[in-house]
Structures are given as C-alpha cells and as structure tokens.
Amino acid sequence: MKSFVLFLFICTIYTLNAQQLAILKYNGGGDWYANPTALPNLINFCNASSNTLIDSKIQTATLDDNSINNYPVLFVTGHGNVFFSNSEAKNLRDYLITGGFLHISDNYGLDKYIRRELKKVFPKLNLQEIPNNHPIYHQKFSFPKGLPKIHEHNKKASQGFGIFYKGRLVVFYDYESDLSDGWEDTEVHNNPKETREKALKMGSNIIEYAFKH
After folding, report:
1. What is the number of alpha carbons within 13 Å of residue 150 lying toward its C-beta?
2. DSSP per residue over 79-90, as a string?
3. How far is CA 95 from CA 24, 73, 147, 165, in A?
4. Helix (H, G, I), strand (E, B), or coil: what is residue 101?
5. How far is CA 191 from its chain centroid?
6. How many CB atoms lie within 10 A of CB 171?
C-alpha cells in the first residue's frame, strides 16, 4: 500500500512539473505536420541529457484562441505556404510578448512565407542574425561557430535568426540548417550519428534557453 501511495505521489509531482511542447498548425496549405518523429526524439534527448521534465505527448496548437498560452514553446516547420490572419497574428504576438517562445525550423520552401507572416506579427521588428556568442548557442552544449549545418538545401551556410522584443529573444529561426531533419528517426534521412547528435544538442539548447528566459 505504501509503495502504491509513493507511486501516485511521484506521478503527481511529475504531472505538476512537466512541460508540454506544441506544433503550430497554421493555415495556407503548407505541411505544418512535417517531420513527425522530430519533436518526440528531441524531447527524449532533452529529458535524458538535460534533466528536463517534458511531456512526451506532442500537442497541436492553433492561433484561433489563447490555448497557445498553455505551452512555453511552439514549434513551426513545413515546406510550403504559411498564412496568419490578423487575429492569429495578434494572438501569436500576445503569446510571445508575455513569455512564449517560437522556434521555426526551415524546411525547403518555407522561408519566403514565414518571413512575410512574421511581419504581420511584429511589423516594426526584423529578423536579426544571432551572433555566435549568444547564450542560445552556449547552454549545456556549446556551439562556438553558431548554428550547425544539418541538411543541405541550396549550398548556403546555416544561419540562426531571431526576433528580439524589449531585449528578449522571442523567435528563433534556424535557416538553411533544418535542425528538425536531424531530430527525426535515423532511417528517415540516413544522417550520420554525429550529425544527428549535433542537431539534438542544438535543439536541447533552444529548449533550455526558452525555459530559462
């Protein structure tokens, strides 16, 4: 009986402390659901290596209401069009300026659409390249050269971009890197082990940074 009570207590503590991540389901026709094994693998890596307590169940969020406020981090990916209505853009902006964090992973074809829609969210703010000495690259894992290159698109160097609101990084955009490809199951892209490890470590840094800030 005592063992059962202890088990229930541990489960309760875990539930109270566990965080949840969500994939943003957007309009426009782009495949917001791309890379389905990516986030589960990243969560497992974070929980094992960085002592996080992230719920393994991935949530799906939309910008229709304030339910996005349940999630400290929203994740966006895809290959095609992204569209935010005015009300959706406002909801996303409110989420970000009150403590939320958005990570965008550039799948091929996403760039021109997400840049356009981010201007709806923050008309007066621009994406800025994040310097290599920024703390997001130096959490548990250090990346002195900045964002690692994971997947080849256009033979361009990988770049980490961000939007800062009142000095706080609220959007991180991995461009020409495609971190989420590196998080997927090994057989999906046949990436070498060291490439997957770099992607997972950088993803862990992003999560750690978002939780701290």
Report:
1. 30
2. SS--B--HHHHH
3. 13, 10, 25, 12
4. strand
5. 20
6. 24
Q: Where are the alpha helices (DSSP H) in the chain?
A: 2-17, 38-49, 86-97, 111-121, 179-183, 186-189, 193-212
Residue type, 2: K
Instruction: State how beta strands 73-76 and 168-175 pair.
Output: unpaired
Quote the CA–CA distance of 118 and 130 in Å, as a whole number: 17
Q: Cα 71 to chain center, whole Å?
A: 11
- What is the DSSP-derived secondary structure letter of residue 76? E
Sequence letter at residue 143: F
CA distance 95 to 170: 10
Q: Model confidence over 144-203: pLDDT tens digits?
A: 999 999 987 778 899 999 999 999 999 999 999 989 999 999 888 888 999 999 999 999
φ, ψ of residue 5 to 5 degrees: the values are: -65, -40
Bridge partners, 73 (sequence order):
21, 101
